[in-house]
Design brief:
515 residues; mainly alpha; 78% helix; globular; disordered N terminus; disordered C terminus
Length: 515
């Protein structure tokens, strides 16, 4: 090996080490809470606990590689494609590319495949195609909004008003799942690419609000899946079946446990490959036709895609094989207790820490930090998301224990979020609605949802109507908490400006007396 390559390899190893340390600090608190429950009120079999430990190790390594891959590949691809499309000044090209990107990336989202398997009464491919087409259409709307400079809050209020009007005509078995659909379509594949694409499109504008308008794409793209499932629920309502939770086998020994992980690696390797292929083909087409990037940049993107692929395979295997069974088992134990209300504070504690382990949240934090040049502190955004998710999980568990319909919580919540849009700076409104989508990703769907399902099943509730909806709650409450941070930030800046205006000006040169 040549000496010139040694510093590069050393640098890559250093970056991977740093990324893994970041993911370790994110996952460790959730792991500690789960261990505390396992050794106290919710003892689990040794096989499940060992699977949780192995899943945690895979999750840490996978999330570290994924975030590195997003930096090296997904974000640059989105920026290059977005910039190239908008430089053409062709509205029709922007519309066509946005539509295709929305459809291809959404169809490749692993979480959508999981949701399709759980929705009763609707064929899987019908649901996937309807949701993907909807995301494509709304991505077009989001791009045109940026170019035409339409205020985001007006669009969001109108779309959510339509959502709640349709919700009145949907059978309860579809209602919670419909609102969960908005969260699962803004996962680790979608968020980095769409956000970077928005930055590339915003670069064509020269006004001061261009970069601020690059946020909000995730928010609009996460609404259309809700509409799609609501419409399908109306069409297929009479054919709806009863949801039956899948039985999760408990490994009898270490060999059987490793067999479950070994059998899952090829499955998720295939799913992630299918997910990445449309994005790779789309980028190669633009590289040949329009971009023509240098070999060095292409090599960097290729390495980033490899990191993204390996990271997502490890991450999805860890959370699905290691986390999901433990979450379901703990939930079933707590739901069967006489004082099963204890799941509310437990859910809040897990929700506070689990949002830090979501890959897309890290992408959003870095994007916000870059675009705002530090004006929105990363710590403040992370704290707002953690508090919001904690409250939302607590409300979701309260709904399970008390048997509350989901609209009793969603309608007031979104009404408060809509009112706050008139008092919050537009940038914080866009970040808030983007945050709702990225906070409800694989960790939520594969741990909190099984926890809710296990609790609901043991408590004798309706799993389809009551347990589902936890993803929707996690997507809703950050809309309020992040906008409240924006209101505070606005008043803080106003006070600082007033204080600066009241300070006496330094004397002019003519007023200085010389001796």
């Amino acid at each position: 090996m040549s000496r010139s390559k040694l510093p590069l390899l050393k640098n890559n190893r250093t970056i991977i080490s740093e990324k893994c340390k970041e993911s370790l600090s994110s996952v460790l608190p959730v792991t500690g809470v789960v261990f505390l429950l396992c050794f106290s009120i919710a003892p689990v079999p040794n096989g499940l606990l060992m699977g949780f430990v192995l899943g945690t190790l895979l999750l840490i390594l996978g999330m570290g590689l994924f975030t590195l891959g997003a930096d090296l590949a997904m974000t640059p691809i989105g920026n290059h494609v977005g910039s190239a499309v908008t430089k053409s000044r062709s509205v029709w090209l922007i519309v066509l590319v946005s539509l295709l990107v929305g459809i291809f990336i959404t169809m490749s989202e692993p979480d959508l495949q999981v949701l399709a398997e759980q929705v009763p009464g609707i064929p899987n491919m019908t649901l996937i195609l309807a949701v993907a087409a909807g995301v494509g259409v709304f991505l077009v709307v989001a791009m045109l909004r940026m170019l035409l400079r339409v205020k985001l809050s007006y669009l969001l209020i109108g779309v959510y008003a339509l959502v709640f009007i349709l919700a009145r005509f949907v059978p309860p078995v579809f209602l919670s799942v419909a609102f969960d659909a908005g969260g699962v379509t803004t996962g680790p594949m979608t968020v980095p690419f769409i956000m970077a694409l928005g930055v590339g499109v915003a670069a064509i504008r020269n006004d001061s609000d261009a970069e601020n308008d690059s946020f909000g794409l995730v928010a609009l793209c996460s609404v259309r899946p809700v509409l799609a499932v609501l419409i399908l629920g109306i069409l297929y309502g009479t054919a709806a079946g009863e949801y039956v939770p899948a039985a999760i086998p408990e490994p009898a020994d270490s060999r059987e446990l490793w067999g479950r992980f070994a059998a899952s690696f090829p499955k998720y390797a295939s799913e992630v490959a299918v997910s990445l292929c449309p994005i790779l083909a789309f980028f190669l087409f633009f590289q040949i036709v329009k971009l023509r990037l240098q070999k060095g940049e292409l090599a960097k993107i290729g390495v980033g895609l490899a990191y993204t692929y390996v990271g997502l395979v490890l991450f999805l295997t860890g959370v699905n094989v290691g986390f999901m069974p433990v979450g379901n088992y703990i939930g079933s134990l707590i739901g069967g207790m006489a004082h099963n209300w204890i799941v509310i504070p437990i859910g809040m504690l897990i929700g506070y820490f689990i949002v830090a382990a979501e890959p897309a949240v890290h992408v959003l934090n870095r994007q916000v930090l870059t675009i705002t040049a530090g004006a929105v502190p990363q710590k403040a955004l992370s704290m707002g998301l953690s508090i919001g998710v904690s409250l939302s999980v607590g409300l979701a568990m309260l709904r399970i224990v008390a048997g509350l319909p989901i609209l009793y919580l969603l309608i007031p919540g979104y009404l408060i979020a809509a009112i706050l849009t008139f008092f919050t700076p537009p940038l914080f409104t866009a970040i808030a609605f983007d945050s709702g989508g990225v906070a409800s990703d694989p960790m939520t769907a594969t741990f909190l949802l099984p926890l809710a399902m296990g609790t609901c099943n043991s408590a004798g509730g309706n799993v389809a109507a009551d347990a589902f909806g936890v993803v929707a709650m996690v997507a809703m409450v950050p809309l309020i908490t992040v906008q409240l941070i924006g209101v505070y930030y606005k008043h803080t800046c106003k006070d600082e400006e007033e204080s600066a205006a009241q300070e006496p000006l330094p004397p002019a040169d003519d007023d200085i007396i010389s001796f």
